[in-house]
Design brief:
Blueprint lengths: L21 H10 L3 H25 L5 H13 L5 H10 L5 H18 L8 H16 L6 H11 L11 H13 L6 H13 L4 H7 L2 H18 L5 H16 L9 H4 L1 H8 L9 H17 L12 H10 L6 H4 L1 H11 L3 H9 L3 H13 L7 H10 L1 H7 L2 H10 L8 H7 L6 H14 L18 H12 L1
Length: 474
């Protein structure tokens, strides 16, 4: 058990300046054995601190602060006691912790007894206790009560520079610092208010509160990043606890609500960061997540940054890393159809789809695109994707699918990069060509010529390749 601080050490524990020098006077009175006066000075020191904090709250536009300060100023001008109004402001808004509330009540009662002609005297032990408790609960370093810390945090989310660095490490650093400053009793309130911020009610009043629509959108983005940061903290156990809180505060409470892209797209970010959420959801809710994701990706004008948690590649990778019981292809068909339909030519998306084993589905979309007579096909995009992912696609499709792909590229209307691959007898797609040719040789050899698959690939030895490179370099 630690020894209590010596009375003369207490001034060194003041969090801020000794407003009005009341605490210094309380110490002086204590040493002069004027214990009654010492306690009254402690009360004055605490009230001065609260009066100062009320002014700071007004600067931060905290709810009800301006009205309360106006009433306090009026009391000060009339030389009335303002202390009760200051205390009631903090009490009514839930800004005191239970310990602070108990201490302030006890201090006020003792001070009133001592300040009036009740004949009551204070003891040394009583004065010593009030001095120490005033430091513990008000005058010393305090972790902000959730009622104060959380509204301030939410208000600051509207700043564009709230996260100076939006990398994972940068976001987690800010989140970890903010969470440490909040008493654990406020974690549920923190989650609820983060969700309120990210879901953007969108009313005129809401926009005015945070400084306009642009600030409201910034707050929503930062709140989404904050929620993701809670799931990416370095402490594994702490992250697991936050994931359970988010599952309860976010997913469970939205089972029966309508999900829309504007207000609930952030759910995709949470899933991307913590895909295990999906395993706890019922099929009916998974279907609504699928509909939400499809709507979000259908509404995109362009893909977000590759590292963004809402990027379709990130979401697909997450879903395939911890698949639901029925698998992504079964539980999220609308989302996958939309992603493949709109972003099949994006290399990051294709990479994720192949990691998820969706090569066949991807090839079907490319073939469909190639066979649409009215479609405007960017041959360079098609050729680039097929060349880049030739080997991986060949691993996931069968012979008939390879033939269907090669046949779709044989149309005479192509005159660009696709035509070049066809005219080159598909040798630029060695794995897909090999897969298709083997099937044709075995089942429909009569099509070898019209598909341009007559020639067998020339096998070049390692020695020959080395000699060719040497001749080129010479």
């Amino acid at each position: 058990m630690t020894e209590p601080d010596a009375i003369d050490d207490l001034p060194g524990k003041l969090e801020h300046e000794d407003i009005g020098r009341y605490f210094a006077e309380a110490i002086r009175c204590y040493h002069a054995e004027a214990y009654r006066a010492s306690i009254i000075m402690v009360h004055n020191a605490v009230m001065a601190k609260l009066r100062h904090e009320l002014s700071e709250f007004v600067k931060l536009d905290m709810a009800g602060g301006l009205k309360a300060e106006g009433e306090v100023i009026a009391l000060e001008k009339s030389r009335g006691g303002y202390e009760g109004r200051v205390v009631s402001y903090f009490k009514d808004n839930g800004y005191f912790s239970p310990h602070q509330d108990g201490f302030i009540n006890n201090l006020a009662r003792i001070r009133n007894d001592l300040a009036h002609s009740s004949g009551r005297e204070a003891s040394q032990d009583e004065a010593k206790l009030m001095l120490r408790l005033s430091i513990d609960h008000f005058l010393g370093s305090q972790k902000p009560h959730p009622g104060v810390a959380i509204p301030l945090l939410i208000k600051h989310l509207s700043r564009p520079d709230y996260f100076p660095d939006v990398t994972v490490d940068g976001v987690c650093s800010v989140v970890e610092s903010e969470v440490k400053a909040i008493d654990p009793t406020g974690y549920k309130r923190l989650l609820d208010q983060l969700v309120d911020a990210v879901e953007m009610p969108g009313s005129k009043k809401d926009a005015e509160l945070v400084g306009g629509v642009e600030a409201m959108n910034t707050a929503a983005t930062n709140a989404e990043n904050f929620l993701c940061g809670l799931l990416l903290l370095k402490d594994v156990e702490e992250t697991r606890i936050w994931s359970a809180r988010i599952a309860k505060s976010v997913f469970e409470r939205r089972k029966s609500r309508t999900l829309n892209p504007e207000g609930h797209g952030y759910l995709l970010s949470l899933i991307s960061v913590w895909p295990a959420f999906l395993k706890e959801l019922e099929p009916a809710f998974l279907m609504r997540i699928d509909q939400l994701a499809a709507a979000v990706y259908q509404a995109l004008d362009k893909l977000p940054e590759k590292e963004a948690s809402r990027h379709p590649a990130q979401v697909v990778l997450a879903m395939s890393s911890e698949p639901t019981e029925r698998g992504p292809a079964t539980d999220f068909p609308m989302m996958l159809d939309c992603i493949i339909d709109r972003f099949w030519s994006d290399a990051d998306v294709v990479d994720a789809l192949l990691d998820a084993g969706l090569g066949t589905r991807l090839v079907d979309r490319i073939v469909s695109r190639m066979e649409e007579a009215t479609a405007s096909v960017d041959e360079a995009e098609v050729a680039e994707i097929l060349r880049r992912f030739d080997a991986r696609l060949a691993e996931q499709i069968d012979g008939p699918k390879a033939i269907k792909l090669l046949s779709s590229m044989s149309h005479s209307r192509f005159c660009g990069a696709v035509a070049e691959i066809y005219n080159g007898e598909f040798f630029r797609l060695p794995k897909i060509r090999g897969l298709g040719r083997a099937y044709v040789v075995e089942h429909i050899p009569g099509r070898l010529q019209d598909l341009g698959l007559t020639r067998e690939p020339v096998v070049v030895s390692g020695f020959e390749r080395a000699m060719r490179r040497r001749r080129k370099s010479g």
